[in-house]
Design brief:
Maltoporin, Chain A; mainly beta; 22-stranded antiparallel barrel; five-stranded mixed beta sheet
Length: 723
């Protein structure tokens, strides 16, 4: 069965995949409505393309049925640092806290929190496709798409309706969208230079609408990023290729093919102790001493990833709409590290007391799946139904090695796997989620959306050496649940609407539930939630305002901490999340907007009353945005309130704020031959050069805390031209 699925996965990868199809309006060269998120802002009293909501760093669509912040493609283009990823883009939104200790995009996000939910407890989708590691549902921010290929990103802080598919919908969805291929042909070279030895070179080619090929559009983007990083000896090298093709067929069908390939090499620090920070400075990451376990030559990753999908969207004559996506993505990770970087574990292997011990790991996985959606109009409202099916297979291994001997296995008896193998296993996860919902309009201004989604998860493990036990294991188990939901939206006027949401949430246990001698007897249960949310959105010609309150009751909460580079899971029991969020963009005069958002958040264990780690008690963002003619400028400060780095109200961390500034000039050329336009962009990150510890990184093997520090002030200059 597994071999057949692999064949299907490879075939899907060879095909390439599907997406945003919409009816085509035939009039000369076809004009294609790509259905991007910016269309959600229409119809709201000045909140369209020219309104305050469109200028805001993050604003809610007028048709929201849950707390939502849309980060526009325009904001991403002008404010995202070179090489930065979706985690940096969404960090401006209310209740979001991101930890990027090596500089934005120069290291995987070390903590991405939304209302206190951590990565793996909320969805991340790409063009509607949920993706991630099946073992713990987390994501690798530096291993897939890059900022230049992104369109709008929607931060949906809620479980959505029944049609919101994914592994962890209760914590929300970060919906990342690829940008649409432009209508005009162009060649677009670009170059970025900046702090921490950052260099980014890229070349984008757009075909524009090709009448001789039935209105097909295509966009291909090739990028190379190299950087030393803020932390010592923590460099990164990254190559990325992105392709998107859209081809209309007649007036009712659009095919989309998207493909992405990413190659990454990075040196990976695990944080620094307070003693190391005091001795070597805030930017201490890895050492240059080959006799130490934190030597940069022993701590690095080599990662290759790909993602591709083939999508078709067809509207029938009776207005039924079918949207289907067939996809596959894969992740190939070879990782190396010292046995206890930054710790006090002495050197020594079976070959010598002074030899440097270390570890070598592999994690290789691939997913293949399909998402089929149908929307059918009825006399009482649209019925939406569909199904998501995904299968991921994963090979994981970890070996003890001797770095002094060039990475030789740290054993004198290679035939005895348990003497040097920490884990050697294969696992799978199969997910099936059918859903149905009705968009009912009992009154002209009232929309009621009842729905139900069925979730089914099945895990299997085939281990020669199981993690944690060192014993063989062959086991499988399935979990399932029925999740009802209800959303109501009432439009008080053209620019003012309110909403209420209720939904059940569910998440199957992580793979760690199988890391025991008898997983059948495990008491670890699936995590489940009950979500309640109430909010409003108000758009006028002068301002865009949204606000909400929420409460989430959480059972069987699972948490984790990092010890000597390894993630250890445990159960916290019941947790209650609640809070208030709001955002306001005010138009002072044409081209000048003031922006502010904020949240008051609480996430506490029911029994002990202690805080969930990495949950700030408040967040806020405040700043100004200027758009006039060829000029764009912004100044935005993000503040993160006090929080705890670990459970039991331990590792307290104080309030901090970081301000970023951007200035861009866009030149439309009529004088330089073949030059359509050019842009110069200057960014200053951490304007006031804030310093200090801002996150717990984990612990050494002897339980000494490790920390992350705020990256120092940095600048970036980007120059791009379009021919």
């Amino acid at each position: 069965m597994t071999s057949r699925l692999r064949i299907v996965g490879r075939a899907a990868f060879g095909l390439a995949v599907l997406a945003n199809v919409h009816p085509v309006l035939a009039s000369g060269a076809p004009s294609i409505d790509l259905g991007t998120i910016s269309s959600l802002f229409s119809g709201g009293g000045g909140a369209g393309a020219g309104g305050p909501a469109a200028s805001a760093p993050a604003a809610a669509p007028i048709r929201s049925t849950q707390p939502t912040s849309v980060i526009s493609g325009h904001f991403i283009k002008h404010n995202l640092a070179p090489g930065a990823n979706y985690d940096s883009a969404i960090s401006v939104a209310p209740s979001v806290f991101d930890v990027a200790p090596n500089g934005a995009g120069l290291m995987e996000s070390q903590a991405l929190s939304i209302r206190g939910f951590q990565d793996g407890e909320f969805n991340v989708t790409f063009d509607g496709i949920p993706w991630g590691d099946s073992n713990d549902f987390t994501h690798h921010t530096t291993s897939y798409f890059m900022g230049n290929d992104l369109g709008p990103i929607s931060v949906e802080r809620g479980p959505g309706t029944a049609s919101t598919i994914g592994w962890a919908t209760f914590g929300g969805t970060v919906a990342v969208h690829s940008k649409a291929p432009p209508q005009q042909p162009s060649l677009n070279p670009y170059l970025t230079y900046g702090s921490f030895g950052t260099r980014l070179y890229g070349f984008e080619m757009d075909t524009g609408v090709m009448p001789n090929y039935h209105g097909t559009r295509a966009d291909v983007d090739v990028q190379h990023l190299t950087a030393d990083g803020f932390l010592t000896n923590s460099g990164l090298r990254r190559n990325n290729v992105f392709l998107k093709i859209q081809r209309p067929v007649g007036e009712r069908t659009l095919w989309t093919v998207v493909g992405m390939y990413n190659r990454l090499t990075q040196n990976v620090p695990l944080g620094a102790t307070r003693a190391e920070i005091a001795k070597y400075g805030n930017n201490f990451g890895l050492s240059a001493d080959p006799t130490q376990q934190n030597y940069y030559g022993y701590n690095f990753d080599k990662i290759r990833t790909f993602m591709t999908y083939l999508g078709v969207r067809h509207r029938f004559a009776n207005n039924w709409l079918v949207d289907n996506k067939l996809y596959t993505y894969g992740y190939r990770h070879a990782g190396f590290n010292g046995a206890d970087p930054n710790g006090s574990t002495p050197n020594g292997t079976v070959f010598g007391p002074n030899d440097v011990p270390g570890q070598r790991m592999e994690m290789n996985y691939q997913s293949v799946g399909d998402i089929a959606r149908l929307t059918a109009p009825t006399p009482v409202g649209a019925v939406k139904t569909g199904i998501w099916v995904d299968h991921q297979w994963n090979h994981r291994s970890q070996f003890e090695i001797d770095w002094t001997l060039g990475g030789a296995f740290n054993t004198k008896n290679p035939a005895n796997l348990t003497s040097y193998v920490d884990r050697l296993l294969d696992d799978t996860l199969t997910t099936v989620e059918p859903y149905a919902e009705l968009h009912w309009h009992p009154l002209a201004r009232l929309t009621v959306i009842p729905g139900v989604r069925y979730v089914y998860f099945r895990r299997s493990i085939d281990a020669q050496v199981n993690q944690g036990t060192g014993l063989p294991l062959n086991f499988s188990k399935s979990w399932s649940s029925v999740l009802p939901s209800l959303a109501l939206r009432y439009r008080l006027s053209r620019g003012l609407s309110t909403y209420f949401q209720f939904a059940k949430g569910y998440l199957a246990p992580n793979l760690n539930v199988f890391y025991t001698t008898n997983p059948a007897a495990s008491s670890v249960n699936p995590q489940n939630t009950t979500n309640y949310q109430l909010g409003m959105v108000w758009h006028t010609r002068r301002f865009a305002l949204d606000a909400d309150i929420y409460r989430i009751d959480f059972n069987n909460k699972a948490s984790s901490r990092v010890v000597a580079g390894n993630q250890v899971f445990f159960n916290e029991g019941g947790v209650q999340y609640q809070g208030f969020e709001g955002a306001l963009t005010y138009r002072v005069l044409d081209g000048l907007d003031l922006y502010v958002n904020g949240s008051v958040n609480s996430a506490k264990e029911n029994k002990a009353g202690t805080w969930v780690p990495n949950t700030p008690s408040f967040t806020s963002a405040q700043g100004v945005i200027y758009r006039h003619g060829p000029w764009y400028a912004s100044f935005i400060d993000k503040t993160i309130g006090p929080r705890f780095g670990d459970t039991g109200n331990t590792q307290p961390l104080g309030t901090f704020s970081v301000a970023d500034a951007t200035l861009s000039y866009h030149l439309v050329s009529a004088m330089v031959p073949y030059l359509q336009d050019a842009t110069v962009n200057f960014q200053l990150k951490n304007v006031f050069d804030r310093k200090g510890i801002f996150a717990l990184a984990g612990y050494t093997a002897d339980n000494t805390p490790l920390y992350w520090t705020i990256p120092e002030r940095a600048y970036y200059v980007r120059v791009s031209a379009r021919f």
